[in-house]
Specification:
Helix content: 25-40%
Shape: elongated
CATH topology of the largest domain: Helix Hairpins
Structural class: alpha+beta
Number of helices: 9
CATH architecture of the largest domain: Orthogonal Bundle
Oligomer: single chain
Radius of gyration: 31 Å
Strand content: 15-25%
Order of helices and strands: HHHHHHHEEEEEEEHEEEEH
Distance between the termini: 94 Å
CATH class of the largest domain: Mainly Alpha
Number of strands: 11
Largest sheet: 4 strands, mixed
Number of domains: 3
Length: 297
């Protein structure tokens, strides 16, 4: 297997920080994404290489192994274990320590199904395939209801059911949708991180939604009724007389769906902002003066 320089693929130095790795990956992923480069095989290959590089370098432990073992980084632990066994055998048999170059080569042949090691050991070891990581960008409206999407990950199309109520930053695992197993080992898993963008007037905190609405002075004093926007339509809300500025009202069950609890919703919390009237007519000013006189008595 040829050595692949993941640092070169992402265009970063070996001393790059986690933030620099993330920035470089996002920039290149946008540039070579299949949706931006339809039917472009070179871009598709490049996108796959970028993802593979990010999967290794963005994981501190994997990056450490890669820096030490290069292309054979996934089998570093197995090598170290075998090396310790080899040292023990060597001390018993010859009083010397370590693997020879030939023993080192034979060991990694076994990792990749080499015939020489296979013949000696009887069979090749099985190893789980590499895990993949991907981001899925959605709008808040998209995750208010459950939906299905078809994702393209490393040139493979994966049908995914997204339950309502997924949160920003949440990660889900899809078993067996990662890299192919080695020597008949199980396939790796796919980890999808959700990036939820909110362009609505609502603020989401968990399952609850928050909204600030303007309330005219007269209704706040006398009470009445107003129409409130919720995430899935409008509702009538009764306003109590004497409602104060920044007071709150709760609409039960008008919040966001609870993840994987069908039919269960959070609440919508309304904060009232009393709007002071401007551009009053002469008649209105006179009436306010009369009220002021009455209040002063």
């Amino acid at each position: 297997m040829a050595f692949i320089d993941y640092y070169k693929i992402l265009g970063i130095a070996k001393t790059a920080t986690e933030k620099e790795i993330k920035t470089a990956y996002r920039k290149l992923a946008r540039k070579y994404h299949p949706d931006v480069n339809p039917d472009n095989k070179d871009a598709e290959i490049k996108f796959k290489e970028i993802n593979e590089a990010n999967e290794v370098l963005s994981h501190p432990e994997n990056r450490k192994k890669y820096d030490k073992y290069g292309k054979d980084w996934k089998y570093g632990e197995e090598y170290e274990k075998a090396q310790r066994q080899g040292q023990s055998q060597s001390q018993y048999q010859t009083g010397q320590q370590g693997f020879s170059d030939q023993e080192y080569s034979d060991f990694f042949e076994s990792m990749f199904g080499g015939t020489r090691a296979s013949a000696r050991q009887g069979r090749s070891p099985k190893y789980k395939g590499q895990d993949y990581n991907a981001e899925l960008h959605l709008n808040l409206e998209d995750v208010y209801t459950s939906q299905q999407q078809v994702l393209t990950v490393n040139s493979k199309k994966i049908r995914l059911t997204i339950p309502a109520g997924v949160e920003n930053g949440q990660v889900i695992k899809i078993k067996g949708k990662g890299g192919q197993g080695i020597n008949g080992g199980p396939d790796g898993d796919l980890y999808i991180k959700f990036i939820i963008k909110n362009h609505t007037q609502f603020k989401r905190e968990g399952n609850n939604l928050y909204e600030t609405v303007n309330l005219d002075l007269y209704t706040s004093i006398l009470g009445g009724e107003m129409t409130i926007d919720t995430f899935n339509g409008k509702v009538k809300l009764k306003i109590k007389p004497g409602t104060k500025n920044l007071s709150k009202a709760k609409l039960n069950g008008k919040g966001f769906p609870v993840y994987k609890h069908e039919g269960k919703f959070g609440d919508l919390i309304i904060t009232f902002h009393i709007k002071i009237p401007t551009d009053l007519s002469e008649k209105e000013i006179e009436l306010f003066k009369e009220l002021q006189k009455i209040k002063a008595k």
